[in-house]
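Structure tokens please, single chain.
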Amino acid sequence: MDVRRNRLRFGLLCAAAYLGPSLALTVAYAQDQAAPPAASQLEEIVVTSTKRTENLKAVPQSISVFTGTQLQAQHIDDYADLGRNIPGLSFSNGGGPGLSNLEIRGISSTIGQPTVSVYLDDTPITIRNNSFYAGQPEPLLFDLSQSEVLRGPQGTLYGASSMGGTIRLVSNPVSLSTYQGNAYSELSETEHGGLNYVFRGVVNVPIVTDTLGLRIGFETTQDSGFVDHETIGGVLDKRGINGDRSNVIKATMRWDVTPDLTITPSVFMQRTHIADTGLVDLDNSNYVTIKLVPEGGTDTLAVPSIKINYDLGWADLTSVSSYAYRHFPRTTDGTYFNSEFVGYFVDSILGITGTDGKMHGDALGALPGPVYNSLNSRQATEEIRLVSKPYDPNGGGLPITWIAGLYYSDAKYLGTSAQYVTDFNATFQHFYGEPPIDALGVATPNDLFYDFVNRLDDRQYAAFGEVSYYVLPEFKLTAGLRYLYGRDSATNTSGGFFASTPFSSGNTKAYALTPKFAATYDVSESTTTYVNVSKGYRLGGINAPVPAVQCAVDLHAFGLDQAPDNYQPDKLWNYEVGAKSRFFENQLSVNVSAYDIEWDKIQLDVPLKTCGFDYFANVGHARSVGFETEVLDRVTPDLTLGFTGVYDDATFTEAVPSLGVRNGDIVPGSPKWSVTLSADYEKQLTDLYGFFARANWQFIGASHGTFVRDNQDYQRPTYNLFGASIGVTYDNWEFSVFTKNLFNERKVIQRPADNFVAEGYTPTPQIFGVSAEVKF
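Here you go.
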């Protein structure tokens, strides 16, 4: 029987990897034919992303779950790590924490509202990409119960920023009866860098037993830089310029006012200091950059909320009031599109010669061009929902479950930019013998060339609902609908050389219906199949002004005299089938899904490379088809093996000649193939002592970073990362030695354009470290 079981298990693993969802009925039959006694089982996974507590197997959509223990054990520290381990999730990075954009299933965009929404518990922390935006807020992944990644549009329950999917970071709950906590420390060293550390502690205190409790934690981290800086002359003058450090505090209180009424206030506060970006020069593979302006910043994130739940007996009434604040002042190097452009403009456009009869635009172009950007976002949200009790097939009630809710958000964004050309006035006076205002017609006080202020008020109102009808205990039909009204208003003020429009304003409104239809069928006790049809939607917005004179050459290339004032909403439909199975009495888990996504009026960023501006526009149509496979096998009571595989083919299906987009071009963002393998061995040696060893390998396939063929980020290469850890446990203590990027993969994997200058983004070099944790 053991030989037969292992052969069957191996066959199921191979089938899951290569056949996808079509194996559902076959594996269900196989499991019924072989059900040996189980030595140990995989844990059942429960999720809350559907606004109710459900077994993952019962949810008719593709979801990946990483527990907080798994996040810590595999040293998953940020969105980049999460993206490499979660099927279908990928990222585009700007060189540091808080500078990433997320993509799921090939649905990616760096403009407007994100295509992936991120929630910290019940609070949305996604922000709109609007005027000098950097990236999505990136909270440290600590004291989490689990992370839940929902693939495919979540428009019914999560609204307009979830076209590709939703990520929920779920905190550990407060215990009202047990005093508990943990302390964790980590020390490591980065190749070509220096020392890194992590210290964190969490304590849970029942203040009034079974009535009032508090859970509070803190974390402090420091990552050494690994990028060195050289002068224009090639002299190394600074090492490890891209270090960063973070401090965070997280607190949650739970008050059971009555057996039916619970109030849960919480707060999350984090500040990250970034010394510089981790981008490197493309022509140098030794982690070196040459630039005139350091690009540091400080990212502050604060998320207070209060959740009130009242058990009505026949349903649960929940109110979530939350507020998300982010302030991110950041310096960038604008030498290329400020200093160099002004030098080119003085020489080629104005044709001015100096007192010696020569042109000196090269001297102006060699001056540093610091740009001081600041993003300030404040978003208040309120959600009230009524959720029915779970269906009990033996309870005699109606075979129906439902959710109904109202949602409101008011987001205010303030973006500012002050752009300088250092020593421009003195240099111009020296070479040309007159102040710049006489030649340019515009004053440049204190070498200020452009200042810009953008204010945006983004409001959304929505009503949503979802109903599930159990035709049979094993057969469920689900239908949902969200009605959304969105309103944006923006004002822009600007001054200086690039300010062709000192003041502008605009308003947009949009209405949308985002339905969802699903069916779930339990083929057997071990296998559930589903189909899902859902709509995703994203609001449009208002373009920042583009100077018509300075950008005339770029605009004419697109057949325009001026940039469009607005860009329109885009939408998509997702058609998905899948199966979720547990075999050999919960020793083997196989989840598979396949999808076809039709995406219309895609919002894209149109860069104006000569003058350094851009605008947002809607283009064409795209299609994303693919499949995802997740396999987890408890081979023995001590050894668990994991496999995930993704194929995603996202292409434009409509040509846009003016932008150079061809029918069949790859949509930027997600890799076409990705695979992860993991092994986890844990052995309890005695009542007190234990041993563990873990390893993981990630293969990330080729992708495209842009639709522009002559852009250096057009083709992104494949790469591999390998990590491992080994350690011992003693009573409540755990000690480990670990490594990340063991084989020191150092290739440039992305080439983001930082202020229109292509630079290289690499994985963090090889890391070796030690860690210790105690639980009490």
